[in-house]
Amino acid sequence: MSVLKDLLRDGKFRLGFIIICIILFLGILSFFSPYDPTRWNVVPRDLPPSLQHILGTNSQGQDVFWQLTFAIRNSLTIAIIAASFSRIIAIIVGLIAGYRGGRVDRVLMGINDSFLVLPLLPILILISSLIKGRLSFVTLGLILSAFGWSWDARVIRSQILSLRERDFTYTAILSGSKTMSLVFKEYFPFVIPIVFSTLINNMSWAIGMEITLAILGLTNLEIPTLGTMLQWALSYQAMLLGLWWWLFTPVITSVFLFVSLYLLSVSISEYLDPRTRIQRIRVIKE
Amino acid sequence: MLRRYLIPRFLQYLLVIFVGVTIVFFVPRLTPVDPVQQMISTIMKMGTYLDPKAVEQMTESLKELYGLKGSLFEQYLAFWQRLFKGDFGPSLFRFPIPVIKLIGDSLPWTVGLLTVSTFLSWIIGNILGGIVGFYYEKRWARVIESIAMFIRPIPYYVFALIILVVFAYLLKWFPLGGGMPIGVRPSFSITFILELFRYAFLPLLSMVVLGVAVTLQTMRLIVSNIVKEDFVVYARAGGVKKRLIAFKYVIRNAMLPQVTNLALSMGQIFSGALITEIVFSYPGMGTLLYNAIATGDFNLIMGIATLSIIGISTFILFIDLLYPLFDPRVRYR
Amino acid sequence: MKKKLFFVSLILLIFVSFSQVSFSQLAPNVVRSETLIANILTGRVVSPDNFNVWTTAWRTPDRGIQQLMLEPLWIVDPATGKVINALAATAPQYSKDFKSLTIKLRAGCYWSDGVEITADDLIYHIELAKSNSAMAYHASFQEVDKITKIDKYTVKIDLKEPNARFHTYFLDRWGACRPLPKHIFEKQKDPVSFNFNPPVSSGPYVLHSYDPGGYWVLWQRREDWQRTPTGKLFGRPQPKYVLFYYAGPTEKQVLALNNNQLDMADLTMEGLRSVLQTNKYARAYMKDYPYIVNVDPCITGIYFNTAKAPYNNKEVRWALTLAIDIVEYLATAFDGAATMGSLLVPPTPAYTKWYYEPLESWLKNFTITVDGQKFKVFDPDAPMRLAEYARKRGYNVPNDPKTIRQIFGIGWFKYAPDVAEKLLIKNGFKRDKDGKWLLPDGKPWKMTILAHTNPAHPDFRNGFAASQQWKKFGIDVEVVTTEQRPTLLQNGDFDACSDWPATEPWGGHPDLYRTFNSWRSEYVRPIGEITFGHPSRWSSKAMDKIIEQLANTDWNSVKVRTLGMEGLKIAFSEMAGIPTCSYPGIACYNEYYWTNYPTQENAYCIPYHHWPNFKYMLPFLKPTGRK
Fold first, then answer.
1. Rounded CA gap, C83 and C63, in Å?
2. Could you give the CA distance from residue B227 to residue C270 in angstroms, rounded to a whole number?
3. Any idea what the Cα angle at residue C356 is, between residues C350 and C357, rounded to 5°?
4. pLDDT at site A157
5. Rounded distance, CA C286 to CA C293, Å?
6. Which chain C residues are closer than 8 Å to B175 by Cβ?
7. Is the pLDDT of residue A278 over 50?
8. CB–CB of C541/C569 below 8 Å?
9. What is the pLDDT averaged over residues C11-40?
10. DSSP codes joined into one string, chain A
């Protein structure tokens, strides 16, 4: 709790935290939706925002606000599945390869690079056609995580490589630290900012990929996500017909989602970095 | 050094290509798609009348023409044999045009567009990111950062569409789509080259703006971390000039991961920029590949994927070999 | 800083000055007001330098090749319901036993390089295709036994087996065997890899230039347009140039239409509404709602895999049909803008006259038996209900019932979920406590509908509309859009599909042989093997008989229509597939530079720019003189 209190002292964190809380709240609201998100013609079509329909209705006869709550829930699930699984793989591979070097490094980087050199979008398109378009959002998250780790593993490894050559490593080895504890004690703090920065990268990448696949019509269009919402709005020409509430709802939501995640992670990584932490406390004391 | 580092590294390079190409060979063949059926159905769907009896015969002869007879393993061997001769075979959906010709038609557009956009966004993004990270306490740095923060998450399709509507539809400064002016035969005249640039401008703009935002964010994070490190703090305390610190210590250290990123994005070029091509109706590899997947054109998929895989792994190899130049602390092991 | 500013403004100035050029002047010497611009329907041309469309491969024929460059022997026009003799001078003459036919070519037609089109071209073409397996129609021409030249313009073809429809290989609708120039092809070592560039035309236009990126092809009117069938039949095509230009997805076609950079496009309802709001020069085939092209000769709807339980049961198919409220269905799919059809032929004016009107009383009296009671399935009021819906949406719909029936069709199946329920219960289906249907074996009823991947395609909309109807009825339906659909369908790996429920007929001719022939029982293969007939795998002995009789009837004889009606009745009562509406094509015209396009008031030609009939539309267009 005191961590949260510390963090909340940072303006960036406060802003990000408030936005993410609102978005999460919207996602939770989906459990109380009066409408089934897969049914059409439940409300009159093409109504602009009003008291009855806060964000208006779309050309399919659905309430945009309640569609949005489902979309947030599903998109967040995809992003969280994709990002957390791929982070775990990336940290393990990056740390080990970077620290151990030599043969281990080459084997790991060999696997890593094989994943990296696969042309990603075509492979995703192929895979989504392999499962005949029945791409549920959980499978989508898992597939994205399987392809989302290799880039960051390399970034982490290259960071470790340059850290490894520094003096404190030698000092630590000379003073007899064990490998694992060395890796985690000495390197982890340096890797954490990268992990967080790649976590946002990865989450936004996952949502971005989901949107791309949805726009290409390759995900299950009946499951509302930010991507499929956008796809329906675009294919019903919401932009040209002036149904701005339908098109901009998913766009603005995804922008705010990422802004808040970005703010949170920047702030958290600064907090985790011991030197800035001292600085901040000092500032506060002054 | 040669024996201990270069040879194993080169073997690894070959292995990566082999594994990657093999995966791409088998994945499309595991999907239920049958290129012969896709072809026949396209012709018939459009209204051509074929008697069902004739379709049966046609199926057989097309299979033979497409080289789809024989077991998967035989086809796989035949693929490698052809590949060593530098031949990707004929396109199936557009039989008998060689795959290499179709790629050759589309590749120049894609390479032109993506090389420029990748480099531009990398350079601008790193410079801006470096400055913003170095002066992270300044107000203007924060403004730049927040602009990037808000632009980056806009779904690319929407972002590109808005750019198109504003500059091509409302202002009419740029063409709505295409790669070159209508009714003109390609030449090396200055007007033609200027026109090419005018047609490429909006796709380029949309990609560079988003690319800059991404690079800026990563660079800013890396730099702001380095700035707080001891050696920079000492250097500052020791009265070293700020500009010198920025270039000698900070930027140099931050470049290492960014160079890797550049290599990777350069390699992605071969598979094209699908959405850009769709929105701006720009010719290139993206739509070519997408069509190939949709129609089950195995040879074309393989051709593009193989090129792409070789491209990326070569870039990675180069970067690995060049690493010590950027960061002298890393030596070949 | 000043330098930079100067530089930037210079660049902008260059761009702006360039863009000024491109409005009145499309290209050097190509004036916009003399040019008609049409969208390429099937998208970017992947091999833009290849004009050889006579092989078994996709060459994007709708970039002007079939519309402007080539003339067929015969061509069907669905708008007028007539067959036009183009390169052929007369209809084909068959021998009594249908074992040979004589084709007479029109004299005085020339290739664009000055060589006359004669019997030699046709003979050479058929023989080439017969001997080379990579040429299109290779398999079909195996039927040819002998081919003889009677005189310079007459060819006699002897067939191995009797075939009263052999000439339909040369009958153009959206693809046919169109004669190729012998004097060019005989010089080629390999006619298959030959790219035929620059092409030689039999049609009224020649290639001017093309985009190596594949987004446009510019065609120029021939100086000797009089020496083409188009010129001889209809006179001078008006536009001096025709540009085929792929503008991109629908939203971009809309933008191009609004900017007057596009004259003809095939849009979606939403796209059209947006153009009509912005561009006062735009109009659709119909002046007012529902705007659609009512002469498109395809019937859309849903069909089932009749080799798979429970869809192999006719009563289940009937139940699913009666569970559809057609008004809600068409509202979901097309905002009500469609002509409903209950028979498995498209309800175009021509087919309505040939089949719907004669069969109307039969339809009204048709009953199915449920729980020992007769139930009349036909609902002649459905069009009125649809008109009511459209009025509520604020569209301007006429009140005269006759006009309404012309626009929305003569009727459809009743919406009778209660009858559907009885039919299902009779066959062992049950509802669970949430009202969801269970299969006779007690498992939940799950159905997938394979739909088209393009959201602008009526097939896509049909799939989602059907899914909504059956979800409401209590079935767990999922719509799957995948590019692999053709393979899945032919292999029988599906439940239902929103593709055409019956193969389309010739389009402008009462003969239904083409529709029925794909239901022949001999083409049906078990699931897992590729079927060559209709993917629904439906067949019936009675239908086989009709097909057999039709095959031995001259296609112009009166008997063709009686047999057609018999066949349609069988398909209707067996519920071979659910027809919903005719293809609601949306042809959008921009009348800024050109007028007198074919419209509902003046339906002289099928209104699509992507059909090969396009060349016969061009002589009727009128320039407006706007710059």
1. 24
2. 54
3. 90
4. 84
5. 7
6. 19, 22
7. no
8. no
9. 73
10. -HHHHHHHTSHHHHHHHHHHHHHHHHHHHGGG-SS-TT--SSS-SSPPP-SSSTT-B-TTS-BHHHHHHHHHHHHHHHHHHHHHHHHHHHHHHHHHHHHH-HHHHHHHHHHHHHHHHS-HHHHHHHHHHHTTT---HHHHHHHHHHHHSHHHHHHHHHHHHHHHTSHHHHHHHHTT--HHHHIIIIIHHHHHHHHHHHHHHHHHHHHHHHHHHHHTT-S-TTS--HHHHHHHHHHTTTTTTT-HHHHHHHHHHHHHHHHHHHHHHHHHHHHHSHHHHHHHHHHHH-
SS3 content of chain C, % helix, strand, coil (to 5): 35, 20, 45
How many residue pairs from chains A and C have C-beta atoms closer than 8 A?
64
User: What pLDDT score does C544 carry?
Assistant: 96
CA angle C358, C361, C367 (to 5 degrees): 130
Write the CB contacts of C578 (distance below 8 Å, at least 6 apart in sequence).
C301, C302, C303, C317, C320, C321, C324, C466, C501
Worst-scoring range by mean pLDDT, B260-274, C274-288, C300-314? B260-274
Least confident of B194-198, C120-124, C275-279: B194-198
Contacts C19 to B, Cβ<8 Å: 172-175
Which of C31 and A159 is assigned the larger pLDDT? C31
Strand partners, C301: C579
d(CA C475, CA C309): 15
Long-range CB contacts for residues B243-248, cutoff 8 Å, separation at least 24: B246/B130, B246/B134
Residue B259 clears pLDDT 70, i.e. is over it: yes
Three-state DSSP class for B188?
coil
Cα(A115)–Cα(C2) distance, integer angstroms: 49
Residue in the structure block whose two tokens are 């630290």 = A177
Q: Between A178 and C526, where is the model more confident?
A: C526
- Structural tokens at position C599: 């419209």
Tell how strand C299-304 and strand C594-595 pair up: unpaired
pLDDT confidence of residue B46: 67
Taking an 8 Å cut-off on Cβ atoms, the answer to whether C251 and A237 are in contact is yes
pLDDT digits (tens, 9 = 90+) for C565-619: 999 999 999 999 999 999 999 999 999 999 999 999 999 999 999 999 999 999 9
Q: Rounded to the nearest 10 degrees, how much is the dihedral formed by the CA atoms of C379, C381, C383, C387? A: -150
Q: How far apart are CA C351 and CA C545, in angstroms?
A: 23
| DSSP H helical ranges for chain B | 7-30, 35-45, 52-66, 72-84, 99-134, 139-151, 156-164, 190-227, 230-237, 242-244, 252-267, 274-280, 285-295, 298-326
A-chain residues within 8 Å CB-CB of C254?
237, 240
CA distance C150 to C118: 11
Structure-block tokens of residue B245: 């610190």
User: Nearest 5 degrees, angle CA C289-CA C291-CA C296?
Assistant: 140
The answer to whether the beta carbons of residues B119 and C64 sit under 8 Å apart is no
pLDDT at B254: 76
Top residue of C215, C499, C509, C534 to mutate, by most chain B CBs within 10 Å, is: C215
Note whether C182 and C118 are within 8 A (CB).
Answer: no
- Cβ–Cβ < 8 Å for A233, A58: yes
Q: Above pLDDT 70, what percent of chain A?
A: 81
The mean pLDDT of C158-166, rounded to a whole number, is 94
pLDDT at A277 over 50: no
State the Cα angle at A114 between B78 and B152, rounded to 5°. 125
- Single out the residue of C549, C560, C545 nearest to residue C511, CA to CA: C560
**Interface check B64 vs A, CB under 8 A:** no
Cα B165 to Cα B176, C258, C391, C566: the distances in Å are: 8, 12, 33, 55
Measured N-to-C along each axis, helices A244-272 and A274-285 cross at an angle, to the nearest 10 degrees, of 90
Which residues on chain A are in Cβ contact (under 8 Å) with B23? 114, 118
